[in-house]
Design a protein that fits this description.
single chain; mainly beta; Jelly Rolls; 46% strand; globular
Length: 311
């Protein structure tokens, strides 16, 4: 943990850990959320940063159908293309600078596969926890391509919430912010932000935040109280993802691809998914992903201890 100037309070640097993400050769991703010392930034509860990844070497992204509950997935690319399919019937491509948001709600299944023409894959996969009042909402899918906002020292693409005079139409269930920031080489980008929010800045390339150097893949956490964020670039342009939201204020139980409120919630979700895979379920919570009939991902074994809530 490092100290920031008095106006902005404490700044905490979260370093990523490498995690293999499926595929024959297991594409590596850098995971900064959740961590033992911090599970949430607003309702943001999961952050994977990957690439630039040469698909010929790693096999790219090959994630067969798998389930989710109680969350929204936010897919954002810097380079490459990913094909998304889900059990609501949505079929879409994830492209650079365009957000795909999938609401799992009470339950959904989806697949993510990099397209055959993708040589290099580079981006972020993010999750948002749904509040208790909305966690059983109907599943759905939204796509949005924000126009860049040109600013002194750089630009922004606002894909969730509001920033720099732009507001995204994508629906969220708690107050949130998501934006890609680009800073010109040798430039400084200064932005007014909501002081009621806590914020995280995920560095895609090296950048300087309020005098602190962020290495690629690191996530800087800023507590509520900030009214401005100041990011600078060195000799090369800088790129970051700005994530923010009001403190979530709820405890969640998060395991594998599920978010619930109790250990028993997770046990039930897992049991249901396994029953749907086996064809023995009386009703379908997660449904069927069209045109992907095989190789669905089974749930891993549950731990031998009770899952604990965090928040």
């Amino acid at each position: 943990m490092r100290n920031d100037p008095p106006e902005s309070g404490e700044l905490e640097i979260l370093t990523p850990r490498l995690v293999p993400l499926g595929g024959l050769r297991a594409m590596p991703v850098r995971r900064t959320l959740p961590q033992r010392q911090r599970s949430l930034i607003g309702a943001w509860c999961f952050a994977d940063h990957y690439g630039p990844d040469r698909v010929a070497t790693t096999g790219g992204m090959v994630v067969p159908p798998h389930p989710h509950t109680g969350l929204q997935t936010v897919s954002w690319l810097f380079r490459g293309e990913i094909e998304h399919r889900d059990s609501t019937g949505s079929h879409a491509l994830v492209r650079p600078g365009e957000v795909n948001l999938m609401t799992a709600g009470r339950g959904i299944a989806h697949s993510e596969v990099s397209t055959p023409d993708t040589a290099v894959l580079h981006g972020a996969q993010l999750w948002v926890a749904l509040p208790a009042a909305a966690r059983d909402t109907e599943p759905g899918f939204e796509h949005y391509a924000p126009a860049p906002v040109e600013l002194p020292g750089g630009s922004a693409l606002v894909f969730l919430g509001a920033l720099a005079g732009r507001t995204s139409p994508v629906r969220t269930f708690t107050p949130l912010l998501g934006a890609e920031l680009r800073v010109h080489a040798g430039g400084v980008l200064e932005l007014a932000v909501d002081p009621a929010f806590e914020h995280g800045l995920l560095a895609d390339t090296a950048a300087v935040l309020d005098g602190h150097l962020l290495a690629p893949g690191e996530l800087a956490y800023l507590p509520p109280g900030h009214r401005r964020i100041r990011v600078a670039a060195g000799a090369e342009p800088a790129r970051l993802l700005l994530l923010g939201g009001e403190p979530f204020g709820e405890q969640i139980v998060m395991w594998w691809n599920f978010i619930g409120r109790t250990h028993e919630d997770i046990v039930g979700y897992r049991r249901q998914w396994q029953a749907e895979l086996a064809g023995t379920a009386d009703t379908l919570r997660f449904g069927v992903v069209p045109d992907y009939p095989t190789d669905w991902i089974p749930a891993p074994p549950l731990p031998t201890v009770r899952l604990r809530s965090r928040g």
